[in-house]
């Protein structure tokens, strides 16, 4: 005889955590995206032992009120969407309302926050999914989330964590990719108490290029072309590397759709085609590109980690990308027709 049972909520959250929280960098991604959604201008990330001992993200965003602290760590509770219609137009990084509940179910979790306009801050601790009572605390407007002993109660996951250096390198890469998406936000990263990275807020394009150089290397700006194209309700901007900036690995490719880093077959194909006759076989272009389009034209609810998107008008997006990049690269193309671009 089979017995069907409803699962306890802690277990439901741990199962959900299995989908999106697979290593320390995925925790950092969720926490920093929350800080960005909260309108933070400064975000500080402190890591100890590659994140296995401590991940702390502090922000100066709008904060969370006392009454909302418990909801923040409840599964399927979010302040970002309220209806199916909102889901169709979602502009925030988060919307599933699952991250904090998932993370808190596989770690020792502490959230301290002060809501804008409030005198006092409050703190909530969760230990492997078990909630402790909310209590008053000291904190400026904004939030701090501290994750200790990630996966301490999930031995199988803990075993899969790599060397401290490897996990930290993943965190650093992730932070760089988020920092490229939000040039106007200051990011600080430290490891085991030592400052590792400081990315100052960039208001102008020139300052923005400094941040690009920090991520893609100091020689990239001089070996790249500025892109700025608009058509059919879409806008493409950023920098594409000249053939001299190409790499033997596809590790310097940043493509953002409405501020979200994505990997997508349609995009990859359009880029490859645009570069086809200017790059040698086995070389990969370097680029930082930002595609902006109506959120209704792109579905981000394809995968829990949201690395994938689905375009409503795939062909249109593909052709727009291809044409913009192909034109920009025209000068570097042997035998290109002069003065026909426009
Ligand atoms: P989601 O981001 O999908 O809404 P999360 O579990 O990541 O789900 O967060 C739940 C809620 O907690 C958010 O909707 C937001 O209201 C609140 N929250 C989380 N982190 C922060 C933060 N750093 N600042 C302000 N609010 C936050
Ligand atoms: Mg979130």
Automatic annotation (TrEMBL):
Supply one GO CC term from the record: mismatch repair complex
- Residues covered by the DNA mismatch repair protein S5 domain: 212-330
Query: Is Ribosomal protein one of the keywords?
Result: no
- GO biological processes: mismatch repair
Its domain of life?
A: Bacteria
Q: Belongs to which family?
A: Belongs to the DNA mismatch repair MutL/HexB family.
GO molecular function terms here? ATP binding; ATP hydrolysis activity; ATP-dependent DNA damage sensor activity; mismatched DNA binding
Q: Which UniProt keywords apply?
A: DNA damage, DNA repair
- What species does this protein belong to? Frateuria aurantia (strain ATCC 33424 / DSM 6220 / KCTC 2777 / LMG 1558 / NBRC 3245 / NCIMB 13370) (Acetobacter aurantius)
**Protein name per the record:** DNA mismatch repair protein MutL
Give the residues of the full protein shown. Answer: 1 to 342 of 621
Q: Relate the protein's function as given in its record.
A: This protein is involved in the repair of mismatches in DNA. It is required for dam-dependent methyl-directed DNA mismatch repair. May act as a 'molecular matchmaker', a protein that promotes the formation of a stable complex between two or more DNA-binding proteins in an ATP-dependent manner without itself being part of a final effector complex.
């Amino acid at each position: 005889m089979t017995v069907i049972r409803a699962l306890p909520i802690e277990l439901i959250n741990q199962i959900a955590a299995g989908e999106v929280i697979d290593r320390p960098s995925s925790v950092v991604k969720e926490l920093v995206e929350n800080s960005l959604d909260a309108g933070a201008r400064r975000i500080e990330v402190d890591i100890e032992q590659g994140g296995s001992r401590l991940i702390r993200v502090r922000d100066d965003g709008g904060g969370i009120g006392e009454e909302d602290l418990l909801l923040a760590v409840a599964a399927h509770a979010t302040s970002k969407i309220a209806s199916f219609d909102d889901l169709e137009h979602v502009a925030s990084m988060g919307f599933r309302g699952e991250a904090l509940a998932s993370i808190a179910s596989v770690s020792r979790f502490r959230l301290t926050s002060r809501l804008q306009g409030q005198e006092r801050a409050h703190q909530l601790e969760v230990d492997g999914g078990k909630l402790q009572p909310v209590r008053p605390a000291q904190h400026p407007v904004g939030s701090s989330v501290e994750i200790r002993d990630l996966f301490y109660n999930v031995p199988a996951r803990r075993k899969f964590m790599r060397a401290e250096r490897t996990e930290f390198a993943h965190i650093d890469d992730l932070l760089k990719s988020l920092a490229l998406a939000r040039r106007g936000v200051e990011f600080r990263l430290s490891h085991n108490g030592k400052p590792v990275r400081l990315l100052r807020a960039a208001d102008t394009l020139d300052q923005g290029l400094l941040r690009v150089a920090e991520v893609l290397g100091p020689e990239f700006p001089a070996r790249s072309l500025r892109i700025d194209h608009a058509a059919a309700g879409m806008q493409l901007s950023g920098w594409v590397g000249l053939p001299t900036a190409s790499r033997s690995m596809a590790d310097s490719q940043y493509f953002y759709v409405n501020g979200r880093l994505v990997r997508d077959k349609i995009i990859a194909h359009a880029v490859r085609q645009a570069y086809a006759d200017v790059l040698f076989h086995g070389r990969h272009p370097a680029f930082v590109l930002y595609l902006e389009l109506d959120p209704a034209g792109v579905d981000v609810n394809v995968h829990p980690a949201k690395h994938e998107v689905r375009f409503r008008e795939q062909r249109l997006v593909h052709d727009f990308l291809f044409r913009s990049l192909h034109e920009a690269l025209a000068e570097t193309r042997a035998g290109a027709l002069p003065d026909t671009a426009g």
